Amino acid sequence: MSNLNTNNLNKLKNKSIMNKNNDNKNPINSQNNNDLNSPINIINNNLKKNKKNEPEFIYKIHADNAHEFIMKSTSRLISNFDIFIIIILTFLMCLCFMKKHIILSFLVIILFLLFGYIKSNTIIEESLLVVRDLGVQIKTTYLFNRTTSRFIDKSKIGQIIINEGITAFEVNFYLAVLISGADHMEVVYKKLIPKLKILKFIYKESNEILKPNFLKDQLGLL
Amino acid sequence: MSLNICMISDFFYPNMGGVESHLYHLSQQLIKRGHKVIIVTHAYGDRVGVRYLINGLKVYYIPLLIVYQQASLPTLFFLFPILRYIIIRERIDIVHGHQAFSSLCLEGIFHARTMGIKACFTDHSLFGFADASSILTNKVLKFTLSEIDHVICVSHTSKGNTVLRASLNPQMVSVIPNAVVANHFIPDPSKADPNKITICVVSRLVYRKGMDLLTSIIPRICTQHPKVNFIIAGDGPKKIDLEQMREKYLLHDRVQLLGAVPHSEVKNVLVRGNIFLNTSLTEAFCIGIVEAACSGLLVVSTRVGGVPEVLPDDMIIFAEPEENDLITALNKAITMIKFKEVTPAKFHDRIKKMYSWENIAERTERVYYSIMRTRRIPLIERLRRYYGCGSWAGKLFCIIAAVDYLVFLLLEYLVPRSNIEVVPNFPSETFLRRQKANNYY
């Protein structure tokens, strides 16, 4: 009897473990949430395997017709390299003060300011907000929570596409918005580039919001 | 078994020429046979990045510096990172380079061999052995072909030439000729002038195409035969000589210079003629004469290079590349047309069976399958092969190969393979099936 019981227990345990595994196999885990204002975190499968700091993908549903796709950087604000440069610059500064070189100290101050300027332009978040009947908004958040955003009217949007581009030594997939009447397209995620799986998800969702019945013409690539 | 093939060459559309159309048609036929083909070339002006041609033929236009007539600057190692990235993301099995004059192709083959990918090379032209540029080109070719799996040449003459230049084993050189799309060149006897005999010349007007010979024989033919006209299409540095000759002998109504003609219009020029004249001084495989015979013209050509292997004897009349012999051959051709001894309009059906791109793709696929069966060579064996290139050059090539291997290891550390996303394949089968259903083919 006890054997049977333990067998049943084992079967139950295995079942629950299998269910958990099945949940994890689905790369996009969305939970049903009654409170529409709280963020729904989508677990990025790759985040667990990566040794480097890869950007994180967050999918917010603000309302039925407004969806936001956010790429958030997970690397530290001041990395080891920055600490190294700060130490070297302070060292130079101290040297200049001790030797009383005025010109060189000005140079070091200028280098400090340059370093501060470059650091303030680091991007910590990039997001795409899609609103049905209104258009899309592309927002980038820099250090110290400074944001710049660009809004594109729905009538001007040709399509949202995934294309491949050749950068210095790499070829990457990127997401872009084709604007009718302009001579160049607007690339959405410039620095924090998501992987192809996430790009496909954003592509499908945003095109469905803007143009319903869009997927009938796809050849099966999705 | 479906293979992933990468064609590398400096020369592709929008540049017009024989190598470009060879690449395009061969790739299309290979896609129809079920393989995946991508093309890597350098950027043309504004055209940079990734483009898709029909049936999912992907073209990578890489931004490189161009030095001379669409050939890119040969930097030894700066091409390696982007090429390695492309090869890994597309899961390439075979790299196929075209045209010895293209440094992108030679470097691509070299880097692919360092990575362990199988490589293949096709040569489209003949080269000399004596002058300075030929000696340098042949040495570089010897370097690249020291360690290649298979070489394809377009004619038996070209095979002999390439084997001698690069000191190859003749058993690993195949001969697969070019082909022509027969549907584009259909004869139309109504377009030719019935009262006159028209001789067509369609070629680049440069020295190696024998334009000096042409300039000297046109006045003699025009005085001998009052009913013969000439149509000359093409552009180049020798156009001035032809215009001067026309002025001198007052042949404005009998010699027509059309200038550069786009490839789609060549057929309309050809059907206006009865005879096609080719005066080149050197030619590996002249696709122009096949196009002309397909359009229903009798061909007169100089007996140089690979030309005797192209057409059967009743479609072509040969001459030595000198003036008097060409005049004799042309007289013979004019007599044959005047007394209707041959009907060139019947050539089209025979050419359609002899030359087709499906046949070329099948033979190339056989070469690819034989390459895939060879084993991977260890590094020491590669260095041994490079060492045998010459007493000074061998050592230099060994150094280059060793540095390339170290660059490869550095790249494997800096840009690991796990970070490179693999590209989803274009669904060519579905696409082709839908095209057939809609009767586009």
UniProtKB/TrEMBL annotation, chain A:
The keyword Transport does not apply. Residues 127-189 form the Phosphatidylinositol N-acetylglucosaminyltransferase subunit H conserved domain. Pathway: Glycolipid biosynthesis; glycosylphosphatidylinositol-anchor biosynthesis. It comes from the Eukaryota. InterPro entries: PIG-H, PIGH-H_dom. This is Phosphatidylinositol N-acetylglucosaminyltransferase subunit H conserved domain-containing protein. The keyword Phosphoprotein does not apply. Keywords: Membrane, Transmembrane, Transmembrane helix.
Automatic annotation (TrEMBL), chain B:
The keyword Transmembrane helix applies. InterPro entries: Glyco_trans_1, PIG-A/GPI3, PIGA_GPI_anchor_biosynthesis. One of its GO terms (biological process) is GPI anchor biosynthetic process. One of its GO terms (cellular component) is glycosylphosphatidylinositol-N-acetylglucosaminyltransferase (GPI-GnT) complex. Residues 188-335 form the Glycosyl transferase family domain. Residues 42-131 form the PIGA GPI anchor biosynthesis domain. SUPFAM superfamilies: UDP-Glycosyltransferase/glycogen phosphorylase. It comes from the Eukaryota. Pfam families: Glycos_transf_1 (PF00534), PIGA (PF08288). Keywords: Glycosyltransferase, GPI-anchor biosynthesis, Membrane, Transferase, Transmembrane, Transmembrane helix. The chain crosses the membrane at residues 60-83, 392-415. Its EC number is 2.4.1.198. It is an enzyme of class 2 (transferase). One of its GO terms (molecular function) is phosphatidylinositol N-acetylglucosaminyltransferase activity. The keyword Cell membrane does not apply. Pathway: Glycolipid biosynthesis; glycosylphosphatidylinositol-anchor biosynthesis. Catalytic subunit in the complex catalyzing the transfer of N-acetylglucosamine from UDP-N-acetylglucosamine to phosphatidylinositol, the first step of GPI biosynthesis. This is Phosphatidylinositol N-acetylglucosaminyltransferase GPI3 subunit. The lineage of its organism: Eukaryota, Fungi, Fungi incertae sedis, Chytridiomycota, Chytridiomycota incertae sedis.
